[in-house]
Amino acid sequence: MNELDLHYPPDACPFCNIASAFPASSPSASSPSASTSWEKLRASVPDDNVANPEKTSPSCFIVLASDEVIAFLDILPMTRAHLLVATRGHRVKVEDMRGEEGREMGFWLPILAKVVSKVSRSTDYNIVQNNGARAAQVVPHVHFHIIPRPETMPQIKSKSWTMFGRGQRDELDDDEGASLAAEMRAALREQLEKLKNDSKL
Length: 201
Hints:
CATH superfamily: HIT-like
Strand order of the largest sheet: 1-2-3-5-4
GO molecular function, one term: catalytic activity
Distance between the termini: 39 Å
Mean pLDDT: 87
Number of domains: 1
Domain HIT: 49-161
CATH architecture: 2-Layer Sandwich
GO biological process, one term: nucleotide metabolic process
Strand content: 5-15%
Protein name: HIT-like protein
Structural class: alpha+beta
Low-confidence stretches: 160-166
Shape: globular
Organism: Sporormia fimetaria CBS 119925
Order of helices and strands: HHEEEHEEH
């Protein structure tokens, strides 16, 4: 591993802190269908009373907390509903991901892309993933950006860097972040319900 990849040790990683603050939930043992894949997936979407942004510093606006994957709002979003999708375990680059992490990431990315599209009301979006400091990776923990591209884009000064997560970005307001994350969790539950009804779960 190159020293350029190690900005800080894993125990200081902000994404690992988020993963610790929002552990994967198990379906209720009292539920008659607790062993079904549907119940397990549904339990991966935190309830609003569990999704307290102040569990971490800075605040985290969580959308998904599954066994292997977490998703939360970017606190310096490029556009509204800019979502980060990360491995739960500390993996620096995609090449470091384990099999189950890759499978679960592959399952959640298309579903979360639909959620971002619905909430942002934009059918166009980028999915960006950087590996290493020279590739513009700021946090050395595997994560994908889902960045909506609305018809009316904000004025961005450094257009050449926008796709890679750089450029003009404003800090996410806490109240707006909490409201937006709750809306995205509701949209995610709807997407899972559609999958269940389509007999894909």
